[in-house]
TrEMBL record:
This protein's name: Nitroreductase domain-containing protein
Organism for this UniProt entry: Parasedimentitalea denitrificans
Domain Nitroreductase: 10-44
Coiled coil: none
Amino acid sequence: MPEPLFQDVIRNRRGVRKFAPGRAVSRDALERIVDCGRWAPSKTLTCATR
């Protein structure tokens, strides 16, 4: 099964109110989530080199 496009993930996201304690999350999934956070725009949209 191919990975969904980022736009599809954002458009179809839902808030989760019920968490499954003890449910395992793979390291690969965590790394992809963190990587997406690195590419997200910052609050002030400033570059660190300025």
